[in-house]
Amino acid sequence: MRHAVFAPRWTTRTRQRSASRPDGQPRQALVLGAGLSGSATAFSLAQRGWQVHVLDAGTAPGAGASGLPAGLTAPHVSPDDNILSRITRAGVRATVQRARQLLKTGQDWAPTGVLEHRVEGKRSLPVSEAWPLAGHEWSTPASSEHLTQAGLPAHAQALWHSLGAWIRPRQLARAQLQACGVQVHWQCRVARLVRTGQDWQALDAQGQALGRAPVLIVAGGYDTRALMQDLSPAHAPLPLNPLRGQISMGPLSALPEAIAQQLPPFPVNGHGSFITGVPMPGHAPDTPGEAGWYLGSTFERACPEALLRDEDHAANHARLATLLPALSEPMRPAFALDQVSGWAGLRCTLPDRVPAVGELDAERWPGLHICAGMGARGISLSVLAGELIAAQLEGEPLPLAPSLAQHLAASRFAARQLQA
């Protein structure tokens, strides 16, 4: 007689459903914000059969920081391949997949790759012997050809991110909302959140209900801070900080031909970023304008206003002298105030530089989820964040390692308050 012994090399963990959606609760959600984070979360939930309503204070997708005319998705690298680096790789992968699914290549996005000029030697590749195999498709030392195309000297320290891409964020937000068929309610500024029975209600400044659902996802950028402060006046449950940024831009057609030929054929980042060939905003939302160049962004902390400032164009031009020195003087005429245009937005960050995703405090506010604090990485992380929230609510396998998901958990701030 044979005897079998149960001795697995590892044991599976019980699948855990989010405490905010008990079995039998309607699959209905209210999302605040129609930018990158809100639209990504709405898309992920709707794809799973949820009934989703989106509220936004603006009149079109990406009215806030997601209105950036052009931005990049590229991995973060670090010598020890730290948590942020691993999270960002998962985010870039999710964003590129979503872009391939929904966006028009060459008009809304392009998988060009991104050159990172390692100014002052920052952000070197991991020294692990496993990196050349595990990370070769992601990031490698830049080739001499890449350096030449960017006008950088042969000794410049730079990385090539082969899976990097430029994206027009507003187009991604718009495409996600259109593709999933959710109901979007514009010009709805939420002033207060209240829980009534098993539902959350979003109220305007006059106390009128704008929407209600058992599951609420707050993805309203910096406005999230005020809503959370109203829920807990004594202790701010989410320490979001404003981060104003301004980019400078102009049409490629306004540059002399000799200068236009010097521009790199791919985006370059490392001390701000320089992007060329991306359509400028057109007169109609779905109509792209002529190809342009984009440089920025500035980083101004503790500034809660998204104002355009002439001096920030000068600051952006100064960045170019470090990022792409060979272009600094040739591009100087393009920064004349009658030639350059700009865009400013208000991003928000958290003290540990990692977004807050998921339930904020299931004990005090069941059903309340957060998707905020993306900082300058909204393009790279918002799709991943939306998928994470949807997977948690559905009890699915997570879109990234559980250990990394824990570092994104919005509940980490409530836990720190209890420990204080």
Structure description:
The protein has one domain (28-419): FAD/NAD(P)-binding domain, CATH 3.50.50.60. The protein is built from twelve helices and 21 strands. Strands 5, 6, 7, 14, 15, 16, 17, 18 and 19 form a nine-stranded mixed β-sheet that branches. It has helices at residues 36-47, 83-102, 131-134, 144-149, 169-180, 223-231, 257-260, 310-323, 325-328, 378-394, 402-408, 411-419; strands spanning 28-32, 51-55, 71-73, 109-110, 114-117, 139-141, 158-161, 165-167, 183-185, 192-196, 199-203, 209-213, 215-218, 241-251, 268-269, 273-279, 291-296, 300-301, 341-349, 356-359, 368-372. It is α+β, with helices and mostly antiparallel strands and 420 residues long. A hairpin with an 8-residue loop joins strand 20 (356-359) and strand 21.
Just give the CATH class.
Answer: Alpha Beta
Mean pLDDT: 91
Number of helices: 12
CATH architecture: 3-Layer(bba) Sandwich
Total domain modules? 1
CATH superfamily: FAD/NAD(P)-binding domain
User: Percent range for helical residues?
Assistant: 25-40%
* Count of DSSP strands: 21
Instruction: Quote the CATH topology.
Output: FAD/NAD(P)-binding domain
Percent in strands: 15-25%
